[in-house]
Amino acid sequence: xxxxxxxxxxxxxxxxxxxxxxxxxxxxxxxxxxxxxxxxxxxxxxxxxxxxxxxxxxxxxxxxxxxxxxxxxxxxxxxxxxxxxxxxxxxxxxxxxxxxxxxxxxxxxxxxxxxxxxxxxxxxxxxxxxxxxxxxxxxxxxxxxxxxxxxxxxxxxxxxxxxxxxxxxxxxxxxxxxxxxxxxxxxxxxxxxxxxxxxxxxxxxxxxxxxxxxxxxxxxxxxxxxxxxxxxxxxxxxxxxxxxxxxxxxxxxxxxxxxxxxxxxxxxxxxxxxxxxxxxxxxxxxxxxxxxxxxxxxxxxxxxxxxxxxxxxxxxxxxxxxxxxxxxxxxxxxxxxxxxxxxxxxxxxxxxxxxxxxxxxxxxxxxxxxxxxxxxxxxxxxxxxxxxxxxxxxxxxxxxxxxxxxxxxxxxxxxxxxxxxxxxxxxxxxxxxxxxxxxxxxxxxxxxxxxxxxxxxxxxxxxxxx
Length: 466
Ligand SMILES: Nc1nc2c(c(=O)[nH]1)N[C@H]1C(S)=C(S)[C@@H](COP(=O)(O)OP(=O)(O)OC[C@H]3O[C@@H](n4cnc5c(N)ncnc54)[C@H](O)[C@@H]3O)O[C@H]1N2
Ligand code: MOO
Known about the structure:
Blueprint: H1 35-43, E1 69-70, H2 71-88, E2 92-95, E3 103-104, E4 108-109, E5 119-120, E6 124-127, E7 134-135, E8 154-158, E9 170-173, E10 177-179, E11 185-187, E12 197-198, E13 209-211, H3 219-227, E14 232-236, E15 240-246, E16 250-251, E17 261-262, H4 265-275, E18 279-287, H5 290-299, E19 304-308, H6 319-325, E20 329-333, E21 335-338, E22 344-349, E23 352-357, H7 361-380, E24 388-391, E25 403-411, E26 414-417, E27 434-438, E28 448-453, H8 455-459, H9 461-464
Parallel strand pairs: 1-21, 7-8, 15-18, 15-19, 16-17, 19-23, 21-25
Antiparallel strand pairs: 2-14, 3-14, 4-13, 5-12, 6-8, 6-9, 10-11, 20-22, 22-23, 24-28, 25-26, 25-27, 27-28
Helix pairs in contact: 2-7, 5-6
This protein binds ligand LQZAQKY5 and molybdate ion (MOO).
């Protein structure tokens, strides 16, 4: 990867969680440090060093070992998990109005010549032979039916885009002609044969391939498809997603009170998921009710269930027990990334996965981009993300063994790390352009660091929330 780098997915495949080998190398102590702890260590001089050899105290309390997948491999595993399902998804026929952001399931071939008839490139006169010309009474406008042929020495008023009358030799622009006292038209500068006539088929012939399959439908593609005669497009369907918000402590309105807090994820995830190419079927607030979660998981028809909260091992953290109860296969159970390390990916059944986002809101963002994004991209048939890196303007502390995702703003050719990047905080990400992928051990000032763009930072609000 370079400053404007390579496409993801060209790397060799990493082992999935559960494979033996590096993908599940056991690690223990440092995973129990959260970001705040690591920063505290760094600040008091005991911090982790770039090579990960810094002093790390023994984990407080429980020294459990945990199987967690390295961050890059978690992303690969999520993309791979979706591949079989992606291959089985039948194309859908979508009106142009609904096709923005989808991926073409078949090449776009022209249904017509473009232009489909010889057409005037300018407002002026269609003329036949050398001037001066006698001007016909009735002009030719864009959209008018076949005009009568011109005789030599004859001219007719013509508008841009109008059909060229048969036997026309050129179009004279209005600013390049004058009429004499007898009403005859003279050119005021030299003109060439065929000037300002767009010949039929200049851009394409009927049947020409305009775009390959797998092209993303942008506004420009909609325009091209419409010009080429399409009313509908064959496209890869949007992956259908259901969001399950867990937690009895969550309020959906008013101010936090009495230990209750506002749900930050219910409002944040649907538009973000849409920006990632998904159709959001429903957002269900389930509280901390294991049976409700079981029911929601077993009755869902979504391609992807995204749950929030309940991924850890507290008394009401129901995600793992329910996955066991429904016989799901855990593909990723924890990722070596901060924040968000309890995130998980499970295969519920053929063609259906669940991504468990941790409840802390920035941890949920981290999991969304680590697991949901590659999975949805693959299901939607979208091209691999173009990876790129920029130098960080100042040093960023790292976790000793895990990747960190840190909100940054882009200033010129530098990424500037933002404060308020704790797992429970959204204040940093709310003003960020991207997340910097800080390798274990941290990044020194000026070190090139991979960036994950936030969809609205590159595409603009309107373009990405459709
Ligand atoms: N003993 C351990 N405890 C915890 C660990 C650990 O390794 N060992 N990991 C911590 C980390 S890291 C995270 S992240 C959380 C993950 O917890 P859960 O996914 O089980 O999430 P909850 O416990 O339900 O919530 C955590 C936190 O986030 C708040 N929350 C939840 N949902 C929302 C929402 N929709 N909007 C706003 N805030 C939300 C919730 O109130 C909690 O404060 O576990 C740690 N514990
Ligand atoms: O600290 Mo937890 O890393 O996911 O928020």
